[in-house]
């Protein structure tokens, strides 16, 4: 096995171990020693590959939501389905880390804000380029999907935890559609 291939495997093992620890224990409680033990390496290797716990955390929580193209007439349902598909497929380790740590770790909360501003808002702005309220609408969309992530995937609260994902996607899609198209001013 080549040195670079072995290095890539070690780096991947550290990253996977870190994602597991950060997701379960949060930033403060996860230790370099525990992460190294999970990866089957010496703790000094974690520092060698990532520099510090903060840099390891940044790598472990890097997220590309891969928001799909959102045609205006299908934006809400396509967004909801893509969100649920990602969580159902287990492609959410970094998101789980951020959502578990954001309430107590300011850097995590800032990272959620960055993802919102660089991935979610632009995708919705592309779908609704003439809407001057797209940022508050996008925030409402985010609140809807974060709520589902917390209740279904992180807390496992029933009956949402065992509901059919297609049913959830349809219901969340309808709520998102309202966030994207209904007037934002208080009504009667």
CATH class of the largest domain: Mainly Alpha
Looking at the overall shape, the CATH architecture of the largest domain is: Orthogonal Bundle
Query: The biggest beta sheet, please?
Result: none
Structural class: mainly alpha
**Count of alpha and pi helical runs:** 9
How does this structure look, described?
With 188 residues, the chain is mostly helical. The chain folds into 2 domains: 3-60, Arc Repressor Mutant, subunit A (Orthogonal Bundle); 75-181, Orthogonal Bundle (Tetracycline Repressor, domain 2), CATH 1.10.357. The protein contains 9 helices and no strands. Helix 1 packs across helix 2 (32-39) and helix 2 (32-39) packs across helix 3 (43-50). It is elongated. It starts with a helix and ends in a 7-residue tail after the last helix.
Summarize this structure as a short list of keywords or feature phrases.
188 residues; 9 helices; Tetracycline Repressor, domain 2; mainly alpha; Arc Repressor Mutant, subunit A
Care to give the gist of this entry?
With 188 residues, the chain is mainly α. It folds into 2 domains: 3-60, Arc Repressor Mutant, subunit A (Orthogonal Bundle); 75-181, Orthogonal Bundle (Tetracycline Repressor, domain 2).
Topology:
Layout: H1 3-29, H2 32-39, H3 43-50, H4 53-60, H5 75-88, H6 93-101, H7 106-127, H8 134-154, H9 165-181
Helix pairs in contact: 1-2, 1-4, 1-6, 2-3, 5-9, 7-8, 8-9
């Amino acid at each position: 096995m080549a040195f670079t291939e072995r290095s890539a495997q070690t780096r991947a093992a550290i990253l996977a171990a870190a994602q597991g620890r950060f997701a379960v224990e949060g930033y403060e409680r996860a230790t370099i020693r525990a992460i190294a033990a999970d990866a089957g390496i010496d703790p000094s290797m974690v520092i060698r590959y990532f520099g510090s716990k903060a840099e390891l955390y940044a790598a472990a929580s890097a997220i590309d939501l891969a928001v799909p193209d959102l045609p205006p007439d299908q934006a809400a349902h396509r967004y909801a389905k893509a969100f649920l598909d990602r969580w159902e497929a287990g492609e959410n380790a970094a998101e789980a880390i951020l959502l578990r740590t954001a309430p107590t770790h300011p850097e995590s909360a800032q990272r959620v804000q960055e993802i919102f501003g660089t991935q979610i808002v632009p995708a919705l702005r592309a779908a609704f380029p003439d809407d001057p309220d797209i940022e508050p609408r996008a925030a409402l969309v985010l609140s809807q999907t974060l709520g589902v992530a917390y209740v279904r995937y992180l807390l496992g609260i029933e009956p949402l935890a065992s509901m059919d994902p297609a049913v959830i996607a349809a219901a969340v899609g309808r709520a998102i559609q309202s966030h994207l198209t209904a007037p934002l001013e208080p009504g009667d």
